[in-house]
Write a structure and sequence with these properties.
The chain is an alpha+beta fold. It has two domains: 251 residues, Nucleotidyltransferase, domain 5 (2-Layer Sandwich); 77 residues, no CATH class. Helices cover 33% and strands 23% of the residues. Helix 6 runs parallel beside helix 7. It is elongated, with a radius of gyration of 44 Å.
Length: 427
């Protein structure tokens, strides 16, 4: 844990040498009597570059600046602290066990409270449990989510110190009145400044006394000692660096959300961090080379296709000089071949004689197959109406004709014989 606050040794919570990494927010009002509205205000701090002061301000969630992630800090008055000894048990039963241990210590019903365990605490040991009202916390988280702010941590404004660590006393203003908070190894307590007894320096261990600037004069007058002024900005930065994360149990992030969070953080670093600049330029260069390579390959493929089409067109013109206009060279060449065959008296595969001759070559010589009721010829097809052949013999007939370049198929009226398109123009 952070033992004692020291302005000189404080390290701002930010991405090294990069843009603001986190937005730290703290509700101005956090209690059941102050309903959360879109106009409800939060104090906010956003660390900048190492040499630049952090930005800060106050406003509604919709007007907050954007950060990679958001840390929600709960005011000291919003969280109570309780020391318990938690027995060993499965993780899914810890919350129920805490309810039973704290039921008699809490003023509110446990079902209305959110609880969080001390970081690093182990079952069988005495550990601290933080408790706060569930409904206001849920409302503030929902308001920030609606404003597009991604809350990744819930931090307390104060937390118990490690055993033997110097105590921290901090004066602050709450609802227009000065208060004094004490943080030591016995827990955290808050009292109105007017109700605080004068400290006895001879009685105790060393302690640090700090105050918000607004109540520093009142704190020194009441405590009769000097206090170190700590601004609200410095205080929120300290809270963001604290070890506690109250996002547990009902408010804990799922495994998928944590993975998405890590992915988002990685993307932010890759996109903005100077250390990743060589990788970004390398990726851009790789994409450019890939695009240029694809364009060059596409151009080469287009030139190859154009050369092949030109060669086919030239072959058509060389073989058939009568063709002066080339639209579809393969189709025109097939037509010219068929025209020459007809002029030479040669049979085409689509002629009736060629089709019947092919069928006759594959029929059994014993005449065991029935004869069709009617034979029709049109458009290069022979239709054998009413010809019924059993499945086994029909399959053998189709296979034989197919191997010879013919196609025999069935339809609703019988069988249809045609020349296979890839078999050529002559039988």
């Amino acid at each position: 844990m952070l033992n004692a606050y020291s302005v000189a040794t404080f390290r701002p919570f930010q991405r090294p040498d990069g843009p603001p990494y986190v937005l730290i927010v703290c509700p101005v009002e956090f209690d059941a009597g102050s309903p959360v509205r879109p106009t409800s205000e939060l104090d906010w701090v956003q660390p900048g570059a190492p040499a630049a002061p952090p930005r800060h301000g106050r406003g509604p969630a919709s007007l907050l600046p954007r950060g990679d992630d958001v840390v929600l800090v709960l005011p000291p008055m919003a969280v109570s602290w309780h020391a318990v000894t938690l027995p060993r048990m499965p993780a899914n039963r810890v919350r129920a066990a805490l309810d039973g241990l704290l039921e008699d210590r809490l003023l509110d019903d446990v079902e209305h409270l959110h609880l969080a365990l001390e970081p690093g605490g182990k079952p069988g040991q005495t550990l601290w449990v933080a408790a706060c009202r569930r409904d206001p916390l849920k409302a503030w988280l929902a308001l920030l989510q609606e404003a597009g702010q991604r809350v990744v941590r819930i931090a307390p404004g104060l937390w118990p110190q490690a055993e033997g660590a110097p105590a921290l006393h901090h004066a602050f203003e709450w609802q227009g009145q000065p208060w004094l908070a004490q943080q030591d190894d016995r827990g955290v307590g808050c009292l109105p400044l007017a109700a605080v007894a004068l400290p006895n320096d001879a009685a105790g261990a060393p302690a640090r006394w700090t105050s918000d600037p607004a109540v520093a004069g009142a704190a020194e007058a009441r405590l009769q000692r000097p206090v170190s002024v700590v601004t609200g900005t410095q205080w929120l930065l300290r809270c963001a660096e604290g070890p506690w994360n109250l996002a547990q149990f009902g408010f804990s992030l799922s495994q998928g959300a944590r993975q998405g969070q890590k992915l988002g953080q990685w993307w932010q670093q890759f996109r903005s961090a100077p250390a990743w600049r060589p990788a970004r330029w390398g990726l851009v260069g790789l994409l450019v080379v890939q695009l240029l390579g694809l364009n060059l390959m596409a151009q080469a493929e287009r030139r190859s296709q154009a050369s092949q089409r030109a060669a086919i067109d030239q072959l058509l013109k060389d073989q058939f000089p009568s063709v002066t206009l080339v639209l579809d060279a393969p189709v025109q060449m097939q037509r010219e071949v068929e025209r020459l065959q007809r002029s030479a008296g040669l049979l085409d595969r689509g002629d009736l004689e060629s089709l019947l001759a092919a069928l006759g070559q594959h029929l059994p010589a014993d005449g065991s197959l029935p004869t069709p009721d009617r034979i029709r010829f049109a458009d290069g097809q022979v239709r054998l109406d009413g010809w019924r052949v059993e499945a086994g013999r029909l399959q053998a007939l189709q296979d034989g004709l197919s191997q010879a370049g013919w196609q025999l198929r069935t339809d609703s009226e019988g069988l249809v014989l045609t020349a296979s398109p890839a078999a050529g123009g002559r039988p």
